[in-house]
Specification:
Distance between the termini: 42 Å
Protein name: ATP-binding cassette domain-containing protein
GO molecular function: ATP binding; ATP hydrolysis activity
CATH class of the largest domain: Alpha Beta
Strand order of the largest sheet: 5-6-7-3-8-9
Structural class: alpha/beta
Pfam family, one: ABC_tran
Bound molecules: adenosine-5'-triphosphate
Order of helices and strands: EEEHEEHHHEHEHEEH
Domain ABC transporter: 15-232
Number of strands: 9
Largest sheet: 6 strands, mixed
InterPro entries: AAA+_ATPase, ABC_transporter-like_ATP-bd, ABC_transporter-like_CS, ABC_transporter_ATP-bind, P-loop_NTPase
Length: 254
């Protein structure tokens, strides 16, 4: 359990924001009256205009930022944060990069080694385990970043635009890989993205935020079956959800 008030965590809830405000030291009111509960094992995507406070919300959940009002509660210490940039150590092999956080967390050597191998396997990089980041493509580097988080076997994954810097094909591949990992590992995830189609493909619910100060404009449950495959993109129900979420987002363009 980390940070602040956990009294809003009822059974089956992993992350809860309650009546949350965030004002930065600069005086910027970034978030206003955010109330959102994320159930254990749920994948929630967050979309909203640039600067509406999506990253701030993740940082609050990670305990990297402190709320000015209201509360944030997370039901576990086992939280991994994945950024848009893979931020790998350039001089260290894939294996060492993936093991880095576990090493810092002082996991026993044998256990860490097993977890690292499993995580590298899970993202399909076994053949590249001894290579340096510079010999990998952008998509492969992002997979290393994912594996580094997976090696912690986190209960909660906070993903901040993790595929935003990738080309479209690689991005699609990474989305499918994440879906596969999610189906197999069953973590809880908060996923920030600018892409409505990505949000709908991945999420159980899509949170649509308003422009700054960020408030929750709407929450759209995505009632599409899992496992989700590439072909889902051509499903009329999927296309309808994309339209619904896009329309809600566009309410800001007045
Ligand atoms: N450390 C900080 N100090 C002061 N203001 C900040 C800080 N971090 C973010 N902000 C402000 O808070 C608001 C929300 O920023 P945040 O990065 O959370 O938005 P975002 O929705 O993730 O944006 P984007 O989609 O462009 O990445 C912005 O107005 C930003 O200028």
């Amino acid at each position: 359990m980390h940070d602040v008030d956990a009294s809003h965590l009822t059974h089956g809830v992993e992350v809860a924001f309650h009546d949350l405000d965030l004002t930065y030291g600069t005086g910027t009111l970034a978030l206003h009256k955010i109330t959102l509960t994320v159930r254990t094992g749920e994948l929630v995507a967050i979309v909203g205009p640039s600067g509406c406070g999506k990253s701030s919300l993740l940082r609050l959940a990670a305990g990297l930022e402190r709320a000015s009002g209201g509360s944030v509660a997370v039901g576990t210490e086992s939280v991994a944060f994945i950024f848009q940039e893979p931020t790998l150590l350039p001089w260290a092999s894939v294996r060492r990069n993936v093991g880095l956080l576990g090493k810092l967390a002082k996991l026993p050597h044998d256990e860490l080694s097993e977890r690292v191998d499993a995580a590298i396997r899970a993202v399909g990089l076994t053949d590249f385990a001894d290579q340096l980041p510079r010999s990998l493509s952008g998509g492969m580097r992002m997979r290393v970043s994912l594996a580094r988080a997976l090696a912690l076997e986190p209960r909660v994954m906070l993903l901040d635009e993790p595929f935003g810097a990738l080309d479209e094909l690689t991005r699609e591949e990474m989305q499918l890989q994440l879906l596969d990992l999610y189906d197999r590992r069953g973590f809880t995830a908060l996923f920030v993205t600018h892409s409505v189609s990505e949000a709908v493909l991945l999420a159980d619910r899509v949170v649509v935020m308003s422009a700054r100060p960020g408030t929750i404009r709407d929450v759209v449950p995505i009632d599409l079956p899992r496992p989700r495959h590439r072909e889902l993109r051509f499903d009329p129900a999927y296309v309808d959800y994309v339209k619904t979420v896009s329309d809600l987002l566009r309410k800001d363009d007045r």
